[in-house]
């Protein structure tokens, strides 16, 4: 299974970024092999609008089954759901720490966005 974690850096030791659309990086991890890669989200850091949807499309292109992040707006959440990507909220610690929480079933699957749209 491949999952993505929003991150402030490029490694498993990086802190989880609580933002989704404007996270600096997505660390994509294969939970079967432990292999991972960092995917830059630089194009969305200063986007005027649409950062969440564009980030969701980028995560979808990584062919992940799940995303761990701190916050996700309604448009990005719907885009992720349409791509079949389950969203989990969990931001305390490093990418490696939330990955372990995920593997142990300690993160709850989100049923909806947890922040309002910025462009209501």
From TrEMBL:
Domain Dinitrogenase iron-molybdenum cofactor biosynthesis: 13-104
UniProt-listed Pfam families: Nitro_FeMo-Co (PF02579)
CDD domains: MTH1175 (cd00851)
Domain of life according to the entry: Bacteria
Protein name: Dinitrogenase iron-molybdenum cofactor
Source organism of this protein record: Pelotomaculum schinkii
């Amino acid at each position: 299974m491949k999952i993505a974690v929003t991150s402030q850096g490029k490694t498993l030791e990086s802190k989880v970024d609580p933002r989704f659309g404007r996270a600096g990086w997505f660390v994509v991890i294969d939970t079967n092999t432990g292999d991972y890669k960092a995917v830059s989200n630089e194009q969305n850091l200063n986007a005027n609008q649409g950062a969440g949807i564009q980030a969701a499309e980028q995560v979808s292109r990584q062919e992940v089954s799940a995303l761990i992040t701190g916050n996700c707006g309604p448009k990005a959440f719907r885009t992720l759901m349409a791509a079949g990507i389950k969203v989990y909220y969990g931001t305390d610690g490093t990418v490696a720490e939330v990955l372990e929480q995920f593997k142990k079933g300690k993160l709850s699957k989100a049923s909806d966005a947890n922040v309002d749209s910025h462009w209501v």
